[in-house]
Design a protein that fits this description.
By secondary structure, the protein is α/β, with parallel strands linked by helices. It has eleven helices and twelve strands. Strand 10, helix 10 and strand 11 form a beta-alpha-beta unit. The protein starts with 9 loop residues before the first helix and ends in a 17-residue tail after the last strand. Bound molecules: S-adenosyl-L-homocysteine.
Length: 338
């Protein structure tokens, strides 16, 4: 297989093209065609000479993934199924909102090793990490499917644990935030983690995007049951990270909390959560559990969720309830399993 353009950083591509005798600005031109002008072949890159386009086509592949299927939810959400070069499959989700916000939810791994009990992706186990190109091509495919729309937000909340794939995550963020390429601002990108604490310290040294933490329980006993990763990095360590990180400017942490009926949704637990977050500039996203066939969990009652919002609000914690977009096509949080 020829090297794939989407796997290169801008500077690495410059070096590569220099060896073929192309000028140094050609790398930026090629990447702008690909990421800004949504070209799908070298032929379209008409500000490069015919000879250079020929050279590019001889030495490189423009992409490596294929869109196998697109499912449309009744709420406008679209589930994209990709086939990777080795035949493995991943999913990404396009989520247009009434507010005008248009979000892509991206995967970072094929499957996931975290094995959270309420998540469908975890049941697949981990098959492998995605490459930079496989992450970026998810964005390209959605953009190309909706040529009229401007994508406003990116969330790394699809399949996989982003902190377990920092190299490809960070290098794809570099392209996504590059002002000459995708130009997404740091405030429009959120990376979610189950809490691989040492990797989180490593990540925030390399990236300034927003972090969301999957909390799901306010004490170790319950979190151990729901998220095996807690046994390795218990809440004391996770909250220590949050305390240190939230001291930085504009580094408020978002906590995600999946609402599982009669499992983690009692009002006592809500008060325990308020205690746990005391002193940490934080925001809470309550996620009504999205059911799938192979587990017994039920989503919390709306009334319970309302009571949680009240308690958190009165404790001065900004709280949102995440809409369960795409549930009917198994495209909502925790339902991805290509
Ligand atoms: N591995 C990362 C990103 C994946 S999922 C992480 O754990 O944060 C994005 C969010 O959806 C996480 O908060 C995850 O815990 C949550 N989630 C998983 N399964 C879910 C389900 N069935 N219903 C609702 N949310 C779920």
């Amino acid at each position: 297989m020829k090297p794939v353009i989407t796997n290169f950083s801008r500077s690495a591509l410059k070096g590569e093209l220099a060896t073929l005798g192309l000028k140094s600005f050609a790398a930026t031109q090629v990447l702008q065609w690909l990421y800004q002008k949504r070209a799908t072949s070298f032929e379209e890159m008409t500000n490069l000479s015919a000879e250079n386009r020929q050279k590019l086509a001889e030495h490189f592949q423009i992409a490596s993934t294929k869109v196998l299927d697109i499912k449309n939810s009744s709420d406008g959400t679209c589930l994209f199924l990709f086939e990777l070069a080795d035949g493995k499959k991943i999913e990404a989700v396009y989520i247009p909102a009434e507010s005008g916000r248009k979000t892509i939810c991206l995967s970072t791994q094929v499957g996931c090793a975290m094995d959270c009990t309420f998540c469908r992706t975890g049941q697949m186990g981990l098959l492998r990490n995605l490459t930079q190109g496989e992450i970026l091509e998810q964005v390209l495919a959605v953009q190309n499917c909706f040529p009229e729309e401007t994508i406003t937000n990116l969330v790394f909340m699809g399949m996989g644990e982003p902190m377990a794939n920092i190299p490809a995550l960070v290098s794809s963020l570099e392209i996504l935030q590059d002002q000459k390429l995708f130009n997404f601002s740091r405030r429009k990108i959120t990376v979610s983690t189950a809490g691989l604490v040492p990797k989180m310290f490593e990540f925030v040294k390399q990236s300034n995007v927003h972090l969301a933490i999957s909390l799901h329980a306010p004490n170790n006993a319950l979190r151990d049951q729901l998220m095996p990763i807690n046994k390795r990095y218990p809440l004391e360590q996770l909250m220590e990270f949050c305390r240190l990180h939230s001291k930085g400017p504009r580094n408020r942490v978002t906590f995600e909390y999946v609402m599982l009926k009669k499992v983690n949704d009692s009002l006592e637990l809500c008060k325990e959560l308020v205690q746990l977050l005391a002193g940490i500039p934080s925001k809470v996203n309550l996620i009504p559990f999205n059911p799938f066939p192979t587990v017994d969990y039920q989503p919390s009652d709306n009334n319970t969720i309302k009571q949680w919002v009240d308690i958190l609000y009165h404790a001065g914690i900004q709280t949102n309830v995440r809409a369960n977009r795409g549930r009917d096509i198994l495209a909502a949080c925790g339902q991805l399993a290509a």
